[in-house]
Design a protein that fits this description.
two-stranded antiparallel sheet; globular; 11 strands; about 425 residues; 15 helices; binds 5-hydroxymethyl-3,4-dihydroxypiperidine; alpha/beta
């Protein structure tokens, strides 16, 4: 690979990420059922109805996985905690075994010299809370605050950084408007409520962590470059609105105490009562901000109901996900976030990577090229003023890619889902060499 540590400022952190439901295995250890289990059990939602009951069995193999992370030369490891493993009913009783697991996991990172980068919620909502309306229920802010307290009372003294929720756009829009992720709703009112409550829950969680003295608290949003599919004014307006929903809504709430006007033209009639009064809670002071980035979207206009746009197939080379490879977007978004929102706050690329149809022994050149080009975009963003302090590969391991099951392989380490054998890919070794130089 083309990058080396010396391309980046002193102290720049390299890490790799995973998430709990995608790797741990939720069928044991006292974990409660999650809305992903029921979503996957419903025909048509997930490829081959695959689920996370075993996944990579990381719950039982985490020592081996963290050895591999250490041997790659990483500085940090980004992981998430499962709400349903720690509190099987979402509220009340704590599963001691589940909490112990995260305690041991954090210690195992520290023993290997890996800084723990914790995310509290990466999508596995306990079914008992889904029954109560999940992210549509305003009380979720309190439930999530309580979960935060339980987890951080245990591990908050040893994590390097903490973020409440991974990718609010996916929790809100993708899961409640587009219906592609659990709970699979396609309803504008549900989406508006979930999008707002994910931010009030973020705020309560930050408050809970501050009360415990947890250090280095931030937030992680996902971003996509949004481009008009043709030269018409209608396509330009559609791309602008897509940008508003995907990129400007959540960060606007977090850093500007407001939602974008263009998005509110469609969402305002569907928002929960009193939403305008919640921005003090939402806008808790943060110590850092994380961006997840994978691709761009070409957007065209249609005559249908708001938001009246379509995703148009683009001409660029694509990953196994069908996502166009567009590293320029990462550069643009880092600089745009820096200049318009975070203004000097430490930034981290908290996820970036590609899926490929990997087999053991394959050369993996596409992934190396993808990563090189995106690391180069980080470098130019730093040159152009972004206060970028770290970069995280998605993902350490091949894992459960949600509605697409186990077929989409994002890992630097191949996982055979029959035997669960781990085999580092060529990109893993190339990164290890680059980080060692
Ligand atoms: O696998 C996901 C992850 O859970 C969240 N960010 C995007 C990844 C790739 O789709």
């Amino acid at each position: 690979m083309d990058f080396s540590r010396s391309d980046f400022p002193q102290g720049f952190l390299f890490s790799a990420a995973t998430s709990s439901y995608q790797i741990e295995g939720h069928g044991f250890g006292g974990a409660g059922k999650t809305h992903w289990d029921t979503f996957a059990a419903t025909p048509g939602n997930v490829v081959r109805a695959e689920h996370g009951q075993l996944a990579c069995d990381h719950y039982n193999r985490f020592e081996e996985d963290l050895d591999l992370a250490r041997d790659m030369g990483l500085d940090a490891y980004r992981f998430s905690t499962s709400w349903a493993r720690v509190m099987p009913e979402g509220r009340g009783a704590v599963n001691a075994e589940g909490l112990d697991f995260y305690d041991r996991l954090v210690d195992a990172m520290l023993e290997r010299g890996l800084k723990p980068q914790a995310t509290l919620y990466h999508w596995e909502l306990p079914v008992a809370l889904a029954d109560l309306g999940g992210w549509r229920n305003p009380d979720i802010a309190h439930w999530f605050g309580d979960f935060t307290t339980v987890v951080m009372e245990r591990i908050g003294d040893r994590v390097f950084s903490a973020a409440p929720i991974n990718e609010p756009w996916c929790v809100g829009w993708l899961s409640h408007f587009e219906g592609h992720h659990a709970p699979g709703l396609r309803d504008i009112r549900a989406a508006a409520h979930a999008m707002h409550h994910v931010l009030t829950a973020h705020g309560r969680s930050v408050q809970a962590m501050r009360a415990l003295g947890v250090q280095n608290v931030g937030a992680v949003c996902n971003f996509e470059a949004s481009l008009p599919a043709d030269s018409s004014p209608a396509a330009a307006a559609a791309a602008q609105l897509y940008d508003g929903i995907y990129n400007r809504f959540f960060i606007g709430g977090l850093f500007q105490g407001a939602y974008p006007q263009d998005v509110m033209e469609g969402l305002a009639p569907h928002m929960p009562k009193g939403w305008q009064d919640d921005f003090d809670l939402i806008g808790q002071k943060l110590d850092w901000f994380g961006l997840n980035y994978y691709t761009r979207k070409l957007i065209g206009a249609n005559d249908g109901a708001w938001p009246s746009y379509d995703y148009i197939d683009g001409p660029l080379p694509k990953t196994q996900m069908g996502w166009e490879i567009y590293p320029e977007g990462l550069h643009q978004l880092l600089v745009w976030v820096e200049q318009n929102y975070t203004k000097g706050l430490p930034l981290f690329v908290t996820e970036n990577g590609m899926s490929n149809a990997d087999t053991v022994g394959r050369d993996d050149v596409e992934r190396m090229a993808y990563l090189d080009s995106h690391l180069a975009a980080c470098k130019t963003a730093i040159r152009d003023g972004a206060n970028l302090r770290g970069y995280t590969f998605w993902s350490l391991l091949d894992n459960y890619e949600w509605a697409l099951g186990y077929e989409k392989r994002f890992g630097l380490i191949h996982v055979d889902f029959e035997t669960l054998e781990r085999s580092p890919k060529a990109s893993y070794y190339a990164i290890a060499r680059a980080l060692a130089e």
